[in-house]
Amino acid sequence: MLAIQDICDRPGLLGPEQALARVLSYVRPIQGTDNVALHEATGRVTIDALRSTIPLPPFDQSAVDGYAVLDQDLCTTRPMLTRVGRVAAGWAATGTLNPGETVKLLTGAPIPAGVRAVVMEEKVRFDRAIVIIDSAIEPGMNIRRRGEDVEEGSEIVGAATVLDARHIAILAAAGTDRLTVRRRLRIAVMSTGDELVAAGTSLGNHQLNDANGPMLTSLVSSAATQVDYLGRHRDDRGELARAFASAAASYDLIICSGGVSGSDADHVVPAIRDAGGECAAMALALKPGKPLAAGRIGATAVLALPGNPVAAMVGALMFARPMLEALAGLAPSRLTAVAARAVSVFSHRPGRAEFVPVAVTGHHPDGVPLVEKLGRGGSARLRPLILADGLACIPADVGDLDAGYAIGFYPFKSRFGL
Prior knowledge:
Blueprint (H helix, E strand, L loop, with lengths): L15 H9 L8 E5 L12 E2 L9 E2 L3 E5 L9 E8 L13 E5 L9 E6 L3 E4 L2 E4 L9 E2 L10 E3 L7 H9 L4 E5 L2 E8 L3 E2 L10 E2 L2 H9 L4 E9 L3 H12 L4 E5 L10 H7 L3 E6 L2 E2 L3 E7 L2 E6 L3 H19 L10 E5 L10 E11 L5 E5 L9 H5 L2 E5 L11 E6 H5 L2
Helix pairs in contact: 1-6, 3-6, 4-5
C-alpha cells in the first residue's frame, strides 16, 4: 500500500490510506491448496513453513581446488607432502591418508577422513610429486562443513512466502520436488460502458476501444492468479447485476472499471447491491482516480475503478494489488517512494494527492533522481505513461512545486513491477 498523506481541503473526500482500509475490510483470505512441482512453484504462496530434511551441505566438502592437509601436518612448518591421489566432486573419498601425504581436491569434493584444512592450489608449489606449502595453514580453512548452511530439520522457507528463484534454489538443494501452496486466486475483470468495443472491432461514431479490460487483466496476472476477462457490459443496471451475480459464483475477486462516478448513467454500485452484495461508493482525495467503490457479494470481493484508463491504472496499483495480497493470506505490503527532485515547476492545486507520469532526466548532486513531468496530465492520456519511468506523487497539502523540490517517486520497475 502507498505511503501518502491523507490530507484534503474538501469535506467527504477520503485520503488513499483511509480508502485502502475500507477496501481491505471486504477481503477475506481464500482457502484451498495446490500441490505443485518445484519448477512450477515460482510466484506461488506457501501455506506452512518448509523445513529441510537434510543438512546443507550434506557432507564436509572442499570449497576450492586445492590440497588436503592432515591434522598431524598442520603444525609442520613449510610442510612438504607427497601427492597420492585426486578426488573430484561426486567421487567417494576412499582410502586413508598417512602423515606427510596429500590428495588434490577439486571444488565440491568430499573431505577425506582426518583432513583438517585445504590449501588453495594457487598457494602451493611443486617439486615433481611433492607439494610444498609455504603459506600459513589455519584449521578448517577452505572446508565447507556438513550442515554449516542449513541444519537438518531447520526452517528454510517461511509460511506465507511468495516463492522466487532464491527459494526454489534452497528447496531444490534440500531435495524438495513438490510442495503445497495456496491455490490460485480466481479473478474476474469486467469493463462497463455503452461506448466500449473490443480492440480490433471497427469503431462506430462515439465509440472507444476498451483499454481497461486488457490493461487490468495484465496488471493482476501472475503465477498465483487465474484471471478471466468477462468482457464489456452496457450501462444497464439489470445487465450489470446479472453479470456480478454470475461472476460472484465462480471468482474470489471481481475488478471492474467505469460506472462509479455518480452520474445517472453509473449503475455499478446499485447493481452490486441488486446482486445480493454490499458496496460502498467513495470519493478520494486523489488525482486521477477520485471515484472508487468496493464491496462483497457473498465471499467474493469487488473493486470498482474509474473508467478513464490512467485513473483505472493508478487505482489498480494502489488498491487491487493489496487486495490480492490479502486474499492470498499475505500482509498487504507498504509501497514506499524513492526520494527525487523536480526538474522544473510542477503545477498543482492543493486538495488532492496527485500522481503524475515522470521521466528521470539525471541526478541531483545529492544523488537522488531528477524527474520531469510528462504531458499535461489527465486521466485519459496514455502516451505519457509509455514515455515515463514512473509516477511522482504531489502531496495533497501543497500547491505548485518549484524546481528542486523534493518529491516522492515510484519507479515502474522497482515499485510496481512493470
